[in-house]
Write a structure and sequence with these properties.
heterodimer, A: 252 residues, B: 127 residues, mainly alpha, elongated
């Protein structure tokens, strides 16, 4: 699937600058923050009413918040867009099942946006629409993170008790854990013989599917669910004799 | 995994029946057997623990983070990374559903993009 891009050559900001001169752009960049926030609100209101509007003020507010890391600009940004972000979160298909409040996700969405759009990456957002699209993606993703965590807890209920006692991992530790898990899959994959074993092991443990669900998904490979049971039995029997895995299974 | 001919000589569940029981797909006969056979219940419990150990390390181990999915949806990844993620998303029901959710863009953003593009075109003609 090819994702749409928001990169537009000769962005309106650049064209407008070349038409009306650099004075307008310089003027906005030098504008007092309170005045900038006020103009941002006025132009946003004009946009919502379907009137002609100028998105440069909002774009400049984002620029100051994200490139200059201006805390006052960031606070104005949060005030101005938090209602919009909350609307996105509430309309997200995953929100209802998350069990969390929309306010919780709004804060999470802005935090994720802040972390992701560093000063170095700002150039990848040539206009206000691209910034708002990214903000919306951050909003959807914090809800999805919550649903992923719930799904993990349902898959491994005993881990929930351990997680409450264990300290939270740092981003680096989480990244290392991901690499370890990917390496573990590569090791398991190296022990498998043929497509049916790979499908059963991948389906059972990476996707967390039951044998019946695996058979329904891959019915071209198996004549019945009993074939899935047999493949799984053979694979687990072989893996349990592997010297590297005995310690893992011994702890089980 | 024990062979179904266990040392006590009694009839026990086959390896496949143990798998089905561990995964919640036991037949009525299997369920009936487990009610009175402590050894087979132990076999099922052991298998469940083994499977949990594997799932703990492997569940969605190959799935990208949501941060990577955001950049994928925005088109900010390199062509190679974009292609790699596209292949995974095509094969993973969870990531595919998550990307579908993320790509439900607010029409307001499309309106804003169109408006910015039109502004650009009008100003080009005014030069």
């Amino acid at each position: 699937m090819i994702a749409p891009t928001m990169t537009i050559p000769n962005s309106p900001a650049t064209l407008q600058a070349s038409v009306v001169g650099d004075e307008a752009v310089t003027g906005i960049a030098a504008m007092d923050i309170e005045e900038l926030a006020r103009r941002c609100a006025i132009e946003s209101e004009r946009f919502y009413r379907g009137q002609s509007h100028d998105s440069r003020y909002s774009y400049e507010l984002f620029r100051r918040a994200l490139v200059e890391r201006d805390e006052i600009a960031w606070n104005y940004l949060f005030q101005h867009y938090s209602a919009l972000v909350e609307g996105w979160i509430r309309r997200s298909g995953a929100f209802v099942s998350s069990g969390e409040s929309s306010e919780y996700f709004v804060v999470g969405a802005f935090a994720k946006f802040w972390r992701a759009v560093t000063p170095e990456r700002f150039a990848a957002f040539p206009n206000l629409a691209s910034l708002l699209q990214y903000l919306q993606l951050c909003a959807s993703s914090v809800v999805i993170d919550s649903v992923r965590a719930q799904s993990w807890a349902e898959m491994m209920p005993e881990e929930r008790i351990n997680e409450q006692r264990a300290p939270r991992l740092s981003p680096d530790e989480e990244a290392m854990q991901r690499v370890d898990r990917q390496e573990f899959w590569r090791f398991i994959d190296s022990q498998l013989h043929g497509e049916s074993e790979r499908v059963v092991v991948y389906g059972s443990f990476v996707l967390g599917l039951t044998p019946r669900a695996i058979f329904e998904r891959y019915d071209n490979l198996f004549e019945s669910v009993y074939d899935v049971y047999n493949v799984k039995r053979n694979v687990l029997s072989r893996l349990s004799r592997n010297s590297h895995l005995r310690a893992l299974f011994g702890q089980a | 995994m024990e062979d179904e001919q266990l040392s006590d000589g009694a009839n026990h569940l086959s390896g496949s029946e143990i798998i089905a029981a561990a995964d919640g797909e036991a037949s009525e006969d299997t369920v009936a057997h487990l009610r009175h056979c402590a050894l087979c219940r132990q076999r099922v419990a052991t298998l469940r623990n083994v499977q949990q150990a594997l799932r703990r390390r492997l569940y969605r181990a190959l799935c990208p983070t949501t941060e990577q999915l955001i950049d994928y949806c925005q088109g900010l990844l390199s062509p190679a990374q974009q292609a790699l993620l596209a292949r995974h998303i095509a094969a993973c029901p969870y990531c595919s559903a998550e990307v579908d959710l993320m790509m439900q863009r607010d029409p307001l953003i499309d309106r804003l993009l169109l408006s910015d593009l039109l502004n650009g075109r009008v100003l080009r003609y005014l030069r």
